[in-house]
Amino acid sequence: MGLQPLEFSDCYLDSPWFRERIRAHEAELERTNKFIKELIKDGKNLIAATKSLSAAQRKFAHSLRDFKFEFIGDAETDDERCIDASLREFSNFLKNLEEQREIMALSVTETLIKPLEKFRKEQLGAVKEEKKKFDKETEKNYSVIDKHLNLSAKKKDSHLQEADIQVEQNRQHFYELSLEYVCKLQEIQERKKFEFVEPMLSFFQGMFTFYHQGHELAKDFNHYKMELQINIQNTRNRFEGTRSEVEELMNKIRQNPKDHKRASQFTAEGYLYVQEKRPPPFGSSWVKHYCMYRKAAKKFNIIPFEHRSGGKLGDGEVFFLKECTRRHTDSIDRRFCFDVEAADRPGVSLTMQAFSEEERKQWLEALGGKEALFPSFNRAIIPRPEGSAQLDKMGFTILRKCISAVETRDVKTCNEVDLENSIDWEVKTITSALKQYLRSLPEPLMTYELHGDFIVPAKSGSPESRVNAIHFLVHKLPEKNKEMLDILVKHLTNVSNHSKQNLMTVANLGVVFGPTLMRPQEETVAAIMDLKFQNIVVEILIENHEKIFRTLPDATLPDPVTLSASPPNAPPRQSKRQGQRTKRPVAVYNLCLELEDGDRPNLPKEDTPPNSLDSFSSPSPTAAAAHGPPGPDKNHLLADGGTFGDWASTAPSQARSSTVQWLNPQAPTTPSCNTAVTPPSPKLASFPLSLPATVADKPPESVINRKARAVYPCEAEHSSELSFEIGAIFEDVQTSREPGWLEGTLNGKRGLIPQNYVKLL
């Protein structure tokens, strides 16, 4: 039961039960007062915690905004750029959210704390003051009555009458105060219901407004989130394909490191211990140096470097070689030693020690010593086996038959598949055979020569300029290559049009066919890092098949020289030296499309080093097929019936063999070769290909002692770089060890030059 009402008539009786009811009302008000006081304290703590949370969120957002992903190579894909920018998007999202949270925290103070404090001080405080007066008058009233009743009856009547009047006046005053107090008690009990709850309602309204704003932000963020999920999935798929290629290259190099040395501008390079003579009584010491020798100029560079001291790089020396002689152990108490004499330092001879006898022989060969027993130090020649697939009439027949077989195959359910009938297994076999044929061509369908040119637009520029650039380059392909590429891409476009059924989207097809249609001449980690851009090129071909293959390129593209003064359109430069990366301006590729063949600088790229051989370019069947999406994603790419989705699968060796027999019934079945080696699998000989293997185009050589003219202006960002204007002429231009850079001399100063900022003369 609730509080009993206080009747005004009871003020005159002032019974014990009336007093009990008053005390019950007073106790309830005291409990309400304590509750509101505690609630105000909790509200202030809530505001403080909200501000602390907001500060932590803002700090978190600040950290997200300031972090930037670094990437391997010289460019990012669009997906990687979106992922990189996502941290700033997340930061902005949190910032907007915290702005709303601050508004909510301010509203808590204004709508909850202040109204409750006002109610407690003005209303409950007023009742407390009334209680004090009531208690004081009660004490006074009954004290007066007690004193009055103790008056002697023997006093004069006038004195007693005066006392009676005074007591009556005092009782009337007490009754009036009691009436007011009772009225106030009951009023405050009713008032607190809305005076207290209304601020709470405002508080929750402000809180729900905050959550509503968060919901609106989430709705705005949802579209971006969906696109970002696609970017992440594409990047993950490309990562898996790249990782498999990197692991395969690592295993190849582990098995035979000599055959996979990086092409270099130096005839020989590596670590040697150099004897440093000291004055008596200290004798001599042997210091490890990284040595580089360029045979054409007989230039020898040595740089002290000690791994154990944290990789400290010392001051290097340069001298020109006069002669090199082998040291015998009877003349020095160390093995693997040889002497070099400097032509520009008469009488100066340095004793050097290799790590092994084999390495000493290689250095002697490179330096022109007496023991020239081994081939060149930095180059391994692996001849391409004969009998590879050819881009001839039979090749086109294979392509058309395979595509026709795949596209006309009926989709079957699990219950309809007949495991006893080999026809139901042919789709995967056919698709694997077709990819194997394309990989076994002497060079990829999109050629080694144009490989780097195809990669460039995928790394930069607007979507329209990328399509225009790819369009232009496709029409520079040899006619047979372009014709076969047209047939294949048309088929892939058809496959992608059924992606809802077979889950082979354009992005997935790019992952599968990027490494098949495009390959660099030399297998390096840097080249593998460009796999994702190969995938993008294939995506562009599929999405724009009609425009690229059915129309001629735009002949009105601007000449790059006439627009070279525009800095934002200059080609992107590579990263700075010693790991100091600076974001370069993004290139618009269509500026480079008008270069004539004779004007195009024949420069080595990091992903295609000079003098690299075509024998490095054929990945193993296992590796090339491994570019399909990994893990569970790969399974999702397969259609239930196995028609278009089979492009993502790799057929087992028995299936491949049966495919060969399907293509050529007279061909014998050859056992599968699954080892990860560079030459194509022996089973390729079963293809009915009649023409002999062609000789690959000779790769570009290192740039040595050439002249070059600047076609773009450049301002140096490092002391090792050169600043120059358009038209500047460089002397003694050579390939630099820095990938993507040249070394040259301008106005007597020598330094680094971005290779895509100049044209060789």
From TrEMBL:
Residues 393-546 form the Rho-GAP domain. It is found in: Cell membrane; Cytoplasm, Perinuclear region; Endosome membrane. Residues 598-608 have a biased composition (Basic and acidic residues). The lineage of its organism: Eukaryota, Metazoa, Chordata, Craniata, Vertebrata. Residues 706-761 form the SH3 domain. SMART domains: PH, RhoGAP, SH3. Residues 266-374 form the PH domain. Pfam families: BAR_3 (PF16746), PH (PF00169), RhoGAP (PF00620), SH3_9 (PF14604). GO terms for molecular function: GTPase activator activity. Residues 559-583, 595-657 are annotated as: Disordered. This is Rho GTPase-activating protein 10. It comes from Balaenoptera musculus. One of its GO terms (cellular component) is perinuclear region of cytoplasm. Residues 225-252 form a coiled coil. It comes from the Eukaryota. Keywords: Cell membrane, Coiled coil, Cytoplasm, Endosome, GTPase activation, Membrane, SH3 domain. GTPase-activating protein that catalyzes the conversion of active GTP-bound Rho GTPases to their inactive GDP-bound form, thus suppressing various Rho GTPase-mediated cellular processes. Also converts Cdc42 to an inactive GDP-bound state. Essential for PTKB2 regulation of cytoskeletal organization via Rho family GTPases. Inhibits PAK2 proteolytic fragment PAK-2p34 kinase activity and changes its localization from the nucleus to the perinuclear region. Stabilizes PAK-2p34 thereby increasing stimulation of cell death. Residues 574-583 have a biased composition (Basic residues). GO terms for biological process: cytoskeleton organization; negative regulation of apoptotic process; signal transduction. Residues 615-628 have a biased composition (Low complexity).
